[in-house]
Each structure stands twice: as C-alpha cells, then as structure tokens.
C-alpha cells in the first residue's frame, strides 16, 4: 500500500512539472502577456513570432510581455521598476539590460519587470503605449506584488532609455512613472549628440527634424518630469554623453530632482556586466539614490 501511495505521489509530481512547474527560462517568477498587435491600440506592422538573431538579441517583437522578478522579502523597499532594454529600436538586448538587471534589483529588494516591448518599425506610438500600459499594470497589481503604487519607476538603456524618458515626459502625468533611471540614453535628436539609427527606426526612414524634435527630451521636459538619474560613460562613441548632459540641464532648468554620473571609460552597452570597471560604483550610487528617493 505504501509503495502504491509513493507511486501516486511521484506521478503527481511528474504531472505538475509537465504542466509548467519547471524553473523559468530567465529566472523570472512570472511571465505576463499584456497584449499583441491585434489587441493593442496600434500595431507595429510586424507579423509572426519574436526571435533571437543572436543569444538574447530579440527582434520582430509582436507581443508586449512583462517578466516579473519578485523582490527579496527581507530587503523589500516597496519600490518597483519597469525595465526597457536597449537595441536602437531595432532589437532588444534582453540579457545585461534586462534579466541580469532585474535579478540584481530583486536581490536588493526592488521588484523588477523586464519589458519586452514591440519594436516600432516606424510606428512611433507603439513602444510608448507598451511602456505606459506596463506601468499601469504594475500599479493596478501593486497589492499582489507587495509594492507601493506611488513608487513605480522606469529604467531604460540606450534606445530603451529614450523610451523610458518618453514615458516620463509625454503621457498624462497620472500615467508617468514616479522616477526614471537612464543608462547611456538616446535623449537628444540632433546629429552630434544622438544616435540617428534609433530615431530612424522609431520615426521611419523619411523623418524630418521637426518629427524628431517631438521626441527630443530636452525640448519636452517640464516640471512634471519625475526625478531622474543618468549613468553613462565619457568615451561612449555610440551615444555621446553630451546628449545626456543637455537633458540633465533641461531637467534642472525645470526644477526636477536629478543626478548624473559620467564614468571615465566603459563605452556603450555595459548594462549589468561585471566586465564594466565601474560596476560596483554605479550600483552603490543607484541604490543610494533610490533609497533617498523612497524616504
């Protein structure tokens, strides 16, 4: 009889695993599909499924997905961050600018949501509506994730930094994040401090300077922009640091609480890689800024 019960227990365990109780692919605690091109307000015109050109380099995104990483309960701050990976609006760099960052935030008590947003493909409204809906989702489900709906921030890298900054400046104030964390962001729409490819992918090949100006953050920043921290490298040859400096100046002009740290070297795209010489420094600076912000 005992052997029979043991066999049943083993079968039940195997069945549960077959139904999905396996370790998650990226370490997330939950995967949430927000919508797709058919259900979202706008489509990016792409079809089929997303795929990786190279490991963790995701393209052809047609669904908006959140990967949730729950905060360490012993360290929980009540804060949450929606993470927007970079990739020039042509792909999503999901590893060092997504999953790795989310894991680190969760270990430090901050609930993290990696946003797999739909690439614009020339449809400028698509990534922004994904980011806004992600923020709405997190706030709506604040109780479930044990977070404070007034402590929901956004984080972005490179073109993902442009998306995070857009979400901080363009939507109605009620839909904006409570704070913004920008790593080597694309924020200025001019040729000497920008990344033209990101604007081309966002706005379409024939975009004009007038089109770009509507998404140039220093032009639309205001007193309603949330507190912002910028982290970047002086020798970034892809997205010049001067662009972030101009945005920082605009934020301070409007009285926005802001901080900016420019590291001497590191180039572009370091995310949470430990090969970046100043990894420990930026981590300490960011955690201190977030701690002071939550008081």
């Amino acid at each position: 009889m005992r052997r029979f019960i043991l066999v049943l227990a083993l079968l039940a365990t195997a069945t549960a695993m077959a139904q999905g109780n396996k370790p998650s692919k990226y370490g997330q605690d939950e995967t949430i599909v927000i919508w797709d091109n058919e259900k979202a307000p706008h489509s990016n015109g792409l079809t089929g499924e997303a795929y990786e050109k190279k490991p963790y380099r995701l393209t052809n995104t047609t669904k908006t997905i959140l990967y949730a990483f729950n905060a360490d309960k012993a360290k929980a701050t009540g804060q949450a961050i929606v993470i927007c990976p970079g990739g020039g609006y042509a792909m999503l760099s999901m590893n060092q600018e997504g999953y790795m960052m989310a894991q680190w935030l969760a270990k430090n008590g901050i609930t993290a949501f990696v946003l797999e947003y739909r690439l614009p493909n020339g449809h400028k409204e698509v990534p922004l509506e994904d980011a806004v809906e992600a923020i709405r989702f997190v706030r709506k489900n604040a109780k479930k994730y044990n977070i404070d709906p007034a402590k929901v921030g956004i984080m972005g890298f490179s073109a993902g930094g442009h998306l995070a900054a857009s979400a901080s400046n363009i939507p109605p104030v009620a839909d904006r994040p409570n704070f913004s964390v920008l790593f080597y962001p694309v924020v200025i729409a001019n040729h000497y401090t920008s990344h033209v490819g990101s604007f081309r992918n966002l706005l379409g090949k024939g975009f004009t300077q007038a089109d770009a100006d509507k998404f140039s953050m220093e032009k639309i920043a205001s007193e309603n922009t949330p507190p912002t921290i910028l982290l970047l490298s002086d020798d970034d040859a892809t997205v010049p640091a001067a662009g972030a400096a101009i945005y920082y100046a605009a934020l301070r002009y409007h009285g926005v609480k802001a901080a900016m740290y420019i590291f001497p070297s590191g180039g572009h795209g370091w995310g949470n890689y430990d090969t970046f010489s100043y990894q420990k420094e930026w981590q300490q600076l960011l955690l201190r800024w977030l701690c002071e912000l939550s008081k």
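The longest strand covers residues 30-36. The first helix runs from residue 2 to 18.
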